[in-house]
Amino acid sequence: MSKRILVTGAAGFIGSHLAKRLLLRGDVVVGLDNLNDYYDVSLKEARLNQLTGQENFSFVKLDLADRREMTDLFARERFDVVVNLAAQAGVRYSLVNPHAYIDANLVGFMNVLEGCRHSGVEHLVYASSSSVYGANTAMPFSVHDNVDHPLSLYAASKKANELMAHTYSHLYNLPTTGLRFFTVYGPWGRPDMALFLFTRAILAGQPIDVFNHGRMRRDFTYIDDIVEGVIRVADRTALPNPQWSGAKPDPGTSAAPYRLYNIGNHNPVELMHLIEVLEDALGRKAEKNILPIQPGDVPATYADVDDLVRDVGFKPATSIEEGVGRFVEWYRGYYSTP
User: Fold this and answer.
1) What are the E-state strand segments in the chain?
2) How many other C-beta atoms lie within 10 A of the C-beta of residue 273?
3) Can you tell me the distance from the alpha carbon of 315 to that of 296, in angstroms, rounded to the nearest whole number?
4) Taking a C-beta distance cutoff of 8 angstroms, is the pair 34, 63 a contact?
5) Do residues 117 and 175 make contact, with C-beta atoms less than 8 angstroms apart?
6) Cβ distance 176 to 260 under 8 Å?
7) Do the Cβ atoms of 225 and 259 come closer than 8 Å?
């Protein structure tokens, strides 16, 4: 049966792809976005234009931090499922404008939780991030590991979302599932991400900044894999873990209806290899500025996806070569670049 689903951040990279997939399978989708200028608004509008006019889609321009309007929205629409993807993104930007993360990621998420609580939402799925693993070095990263040492305010805000969600699962029996995304890339991607920045610079004949001397390792995850994981998780309402014990608490589950999952490719790629794959796809070589690691950056990410595979039967599998090729094809078409 079709669901009535709120997708926040619907003009964003992941949100627009997700909304498109949900509409294709017959769900009724309300997309919410504030269309802020963190990056090129015209790109957000172009994503949104693919959705507007479609049957069963409506758009609300709204900021999550607007408590009154959010309360009215939830009371009016009576959503079955909420997928919260709206957030202030970016590790490095959190060093420059920390207040934006409090407004969007904490105040905004609070309004989402309250809306879900008071309107009988069946399941809240929300974006967390691989950044929450912070200073952890044991790999692959597992949702069952302690993550109390974030290295950026962005990461801290995402960890806070997980804690806030657990509180509402415990107090109000609201099923919540947090998804720790690992370096998402693909067509319609974010212009502040490395793949986008590198492509733009290489095609313009400009040098690229390569941090940590190119030794950064990321579990690059293709957008279609992310969306498939989100949909499968959203369809499986979070349940309590009957084996959970306060004497030996498991961070990834709870006695409340609460779950955490990693969605990553389970195959970390060194930054230098990504650049080589991109050079092959573009047919051009990059001029590189080799630089040290930046404050707040994590040297490596690597997802343990065993829980995702066990519970929803899905494991991301798109290779970096295939994914980068698709991104380059989209980029050349969208920007009319030969």
Assistant:
1) 4-8, 28-33, 57-61, 81-84, 123-129, 176-181, 184-185, 208-210, 217-218, 221-222, 258-263, 269-270, 288-290
2) 14
3) 28
4) yes
5) no
6) no
7) no
Q: How many CA atoms lie within 13 A of 231 on its CB side?
A: 21
Express each pLDDT in 300-312 by its tens digit: 899 999 999 999 9
Q: Cβ distance 129 to 141 under 8 Å?
A: no
- From the candidates 39, 93, 126, 154, give the one annotated as an active-site residue: 154
pLDDT bin (cut points 50, 70, 90) of residue 295 is confident
The structure's pTM equals 0.95
Strands 217-218 and 269-270: antiparallel
3-state secondary structure of 57: strand
Which has the closest alpha carbon to 154: 63, 92, 84, 86?
Answer: 92
- With cut-offs at 50, 70 and 90, classify the pLDDT of residue 298: confident
Orientation of helix 194-203 relative to helix 271-282, angle to 10°: 40
d(CA 134, CA 298) in angstroms, rounded, equals 6
- Tens of pLDDT, residue by residue over 21-74, are 999 999 999 999 999 999 999 999 999 999 998 999 999 999 999 999 999 999
154 is catalytic: yes
